Amino acid sequence: MDETLALGREVAQKLAIKDIVLRCSNVQVREGCSTIGTDFGKMSSQSFQAPADVDDFEISRTPKNAEAEEKTKSHLYSFHYRIGVRLVPDEEHENSDDEDYEPPIQIMATFEARYVAPGELVAEELDAFAKTHVGFNVWPFWREFVQSTCLKLGMNSTINVPLYRMPTFDDSAALKQVQPEEDAEQE
Fold first, then answer.
1. Exposed, middle or buried by CB within 10 Å (0-12, 13-18, 19+), for 109?
2. What global pTM score does this model have?
């Protein structure tokens, strides 16, 4: 087992999830693209996901019926997780890597996942946890966001966001996310 995965699991035992919130989102429909009558089932989906920043906040509390000097300290860790998906027609697939390419439909979001720990964690621990666990916790919120956004766009089918797959690690310990096949089925 890779060291990052093992460390991520160890850190997960120290953290309690507090909440997950949508930080920002961006939904784009290309000029001239209609969500009515377009067969989105004939398009490929492309996606990305990545942990971004993490913030650390120290929290001091005085328990009820305690003296003022009997404060307990804990830490709130706020992980930002960026994620996105877009649909690309098969005939435009070659150009989809161009910097100025505009896909017919693109949905992006940044979620903030907040966790509480009784003590302070070091950067290596936070990095391992971000790579191995934050995506798993954010994923159900992302799936719901994509499905409801597709409905609000008036699409005749929704973009299929598959179940989350835990990351795997190669021999060089570099993180690589196991991705579903590029031609994801449309629901």
1. buried
2. 0.81
